[in-house]
Write a structure and sequence with these properties.
Layout lengths: L2 E5 L5 E5 L1 H4 L6 H13 L6 H28 L3 H17 L8 H7 L5 H38 L5 H15 L1
Antiparallel strand pairs: 1-2
Helix pairs in contact: 2-3, 4-6, 5-6, 6-7
Amino acid sequence: MDIKLFRKKDGGVIQLVDKEKMKDWPVELPLIFIEYIREKKLDIYEDNTIKKDIESYLDEIMKEIAIPRLISVLDSENDEEIIPSLTRILTVAKKNIEMVKPIQKYLIDLQKSKNNKVVELSKNISEMFVKAERRKELARKRKIMRQKEKEFLDGKITAQDYAKIRKEYLLLKE
């Protein structure tokens, strides 16, 4: 069967592509499919049990189809397969870096490739991971900074402590 059915309480049906059919797709397409359903479609389903069922189905696709296939291509020596896959992975990473996180460790090996295009693409994706981590760290520090600023204004910490924390935050921000 080429379709996975989810039955809603009101009698309606939601149809998604079956996992077996996805094995015939290009390597990165299951990732794009998962991202599309999560971002665009999942919120329109009002039934929470359906949402949970679809989420678990998407997780299954990720674990059983998307990631293993992607890894097999990235582990291969075939640059004709690797370059288009990395190009499409870069596109997915620009939209949501978390979707391609499982391939992060494979990018290090790809940066040692003899093919300049493979090296360039893998470095671009790796840089996106670094930037995403930096944004997370800044967000965490910004939250701490707001808390310390409030404590300073309330008189709970000294001006010296506040200045020290503020300096650390500003250095990280640069």
